Amino acid sequence: MGEHVSEQDYYDILGVSRDASEDEIRKAYRKLARKYHPDVNPDNKEESEEKFKEISEAYEVLMDKEKRARYDQYGKEGVFNGGAGGFQWSDFTHYQDIEDIFGDLGGSIFDMFFGGGRRSRRGPQRGSDLRYDISITLRDAFEGMEKTLTLEKMVECPECGGTRSASGSEPETCSKCNGRGQVQAVRNTPFGQFATVMACDACHGTGRIVNDPCSRCRGTGSVRGKKSLKVRIPSGIENGSHIRLAGEGNPSTTGGPPGDLYVVVHVEQDKRFAREGTELLSEETITFPQAALGDEITVETIDGRVKMTVPKGTQHGKILRLKGRGMPDMRTGRRGDQHVRVLIDVPTELTDDQKELIRKLAKTFGNAPKEKKKGFFENLGIGIF
Ligand SMILES: [Zn+2]
Ligand SMILES: [Zn+2]
To answer: Could you tell me if 114 and 126 lie in one domain?
Structure first.
């Protein structure tokens, strides 16, 4: 992990055009995912696993508007946290899609990607993972913050303390699976029949049976409840980032370890700044005299106002740079730049005096631009004039 699975182009991998719609990408992925699912290719499992990861990475990027835009512009280096870490399976946000496609078979994919931690086939099962979405402002993302989440989830049963039994007595060995926690079963899937080892349903894969289940939690050891959690959101966090809180998912109902909580951070669009990684873009409107003669103007940045020099002769649309006034990099803390696009305001209402002055000025220009720019049609090579 940490490296890109393949250096091939994501669009090529999925066999879609560069302007493919989300729907087309989803369809292409589903088709390929069925073909390369490792369970469907028992004879070349390794190869299909590689292929599966490859198409999943491509899918993840192309289904995410922001990642796709960065990929289109900068390639793979631009996609995963500035390219420093490469593709991590924790970046993968489309779990649901895989479950939709494969139902239960999706589970083995999670095992593959998450190192088997997500669903264990033997013994007590891990609790399920939870996802919690939060929205923060760009300013919050700039500063970083600590946020308290209150989530409704399964918590340890206060009655039995999570032991699952009313008396607190030791669970007995399951007679159906003789304590192994798993049984052989034949599963019917869209790809045919598979003989698989499944968790024993009598003991839910734990190999043990609680004879006097706690009445409050019905022998599961957990009940629905509320929990408050603090999560630290690092300064410079990118929209769509996941923060994993290990062990804060749902507790296991079968005596296994709890799942994890994934906090998905959405950074709201800011009215004043557009963001591209660590770079911010803003706009400032100036007058024609300021553009022509140059001036010092005050510019709003994410952390206060600063002075910026507009050089004389600044053209409409020119982008000036405020070094180190962008967003911090989440890892290094080093700030990017703010790029200020300068717009020149053409007044729509003028006093008589102003009109007179502009007429005078116009005479000095001879009513034509000083330097004749190459025309639009000349650029196209069309000799109309
Ligand atoms: Zn209980
Ligand atoms: Zn059993």
So the answer is: no
In tens, the pLDDT along 337-384 reads: 999 999 999 989 999 999 999 999 888 887 555 555 555 555 454 433
* Burial label, 264 (beta-carbon count in 10 A; 0-12, 13-18, 19+): middle
DSSP state of 219: T
| Residue 51, domain member (yes or no) | yes
Residues 338 and 251 in one domain: no
Distance, CA 225 to ligand 2 centroid (Å)?
Answer: 29
- Given 87, 119, 151, the domain boundary residue is 119
pTM: 0.54
Contact between 58 and 10 (Cβ < 8 Å) = yes
pLDDT for the residue 328: 97
Cα of first residue to Cα of last residue in the chain, in angstroms, is 61
193: left (phi over 0), alpha (psi -120 to 50) or beta: beta
Ligand nearest to the CA of 181: 2
For residue 270, what is the DSSP state? P
223 alpha carbon – ligand 1 mean position (Å): 8
Distance of CA 209 from the midpoint of ligand 2 (Å): 7
Q: Would you call 280 helix, strand, or coil by DSSP?
A: strand
How far is the C-alpha of 5 from the C-alpha of 368, rounded, in Å?
58
In 3D space, the residue among 292, 287, 288, 325 whose CA is nearest the CA of residue 308 turns out to be 325
In this structure, are 99 and 36 located in the same domain? Answer: yes
Q: Find the domain containing 146 and state its range.
A: 121-171+210-266
CATH number of residue 65's parent domain: 1.10.287.110
- The ligand minimizing its distance to the Cα of 123 is 2
Q: Is 305 helix (H, G, I), strand (E, B) or coil?
A: strand
Q: Could you tell me the distance, in angstroms and rounded to a whole number, from the CA of residue 117 to the centre of ligand 2?
A: 21
